[in-house]
C-alpha cells in the first residue's frame, strides 16, 4: 500500500480565506521556481478561483504529520493534484494525489427555456452562462 502524503496550505488569509475550501475539493499545486522569497515555493490553486495559498515550507508553519514544500518538491515535475482533507482557521490540510494526471471540468446543458449552461465546479459552486451569449446562437 502506498503511503499517503499530506501537506499544509498556508497564507490562505492573504487570498480568499478558508471559506472557499470544502472537504474533498481538488487543489492544484504548482512549482514557482522563480519565486523571490522561496526557491522551493509551491502555490496552491483552486481551478475555478486561482491562487489560494502556498504549501507550508517553514518549521513554524508545517503541522506534524505533513511534509514541507521542500520535502515534496522532487515528487513531481511541475504540478500535482491534491484533495482537501481538513480545514482549519488559517491552514488547509491536503492529501497529494500523485496518480491524477488531468482535471476535467464537467459541463452540462440544461433543457430549459433560458438556454443555460451549468458548469459544476469541484468545490460545489455553480456558475451559469447564457448559451446565446456564449455561442451566438441557442
Q: Which terms summarize this structure?
A:
nucleic acid binding; zinc ion binding; 138 residues; six-stranded antiparallel beta barrel; 9 strands; three-stranded antiparallel beta sheet; single chain; disordered C terminus; Alpha-Beta Plaits; 7% helix; mainly beta
Question: Would you kindly provide a written description of the structure presented here, covering whatever features stand out?
Answer:
- It is a single chain.
- This protein is mainly β and 138 residues long.
- The chain folds into two domains: 6-97, Alpha-Beta Plaits (2-Layer Sandwich), CATH 3.30.70; 106-135, no CATH class.
- 7% of the residues lie in helices and 37% in strands.
- The protein has two helices and nine strands.
- A six-stranded antiparallel barrel has the order 1-4-3-2-5-6.
- Strand 8 and strand 9 form a beta hairpin.
- The termini are far apart.
- Residues 116-138 have low confidence and may be disordered.
- Keywords: Hydrolase, Metal-binding.
- InterPro entries: HIRAN.
- GO terms for molecular function: hydrolase activity, acting on acid anhydrides, in phosphorus-containing anhydrides; nucleic acid binding; zinc ion binding.
- Residues 5-57 form the HIRAN domain.
Amino acid at each position: 500500500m502506498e503511503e499517503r502524503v499530506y501537506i499544509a496550505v498556508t497564507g490562505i488569509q492573504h487570498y480568499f480565506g478558508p471559506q472557499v475550501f470544502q472537504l474533498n475539493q481538488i487543489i492544484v499545486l504548482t512549482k514557482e521556481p522563480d519565486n523571490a522569497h522561496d526557491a522551493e515555493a509551491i502555490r496552491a490553486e483552486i481551478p475555478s478561483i486561482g491562487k489560494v495559498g502556498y504549501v507550508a515550507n517553514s518549521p513554524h508553519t508545517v503541522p506534524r504529520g505533513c511534509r514541507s514544500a521542500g520535502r515534496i518538491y522532487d515528487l513531481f515535475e511541475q504540478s500535482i493534484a491534491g484533495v482537501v482533507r481538513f480545514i482549519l482557521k488559517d491552514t488547509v490540510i491536503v492529501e497529494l494525489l500523485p496518480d491524477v494526471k488531468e482535471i476535467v471540468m464537467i459541463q452540462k446543458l440544461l433543457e430549459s427555456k433560458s438556454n443555460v449552461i451549468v458548469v459544476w465546479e469541484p468545490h460545489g459552486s455553480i456558475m451559469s452562462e447564457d448559451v446565446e451569449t456564449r455561442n451566438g446562437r441557442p
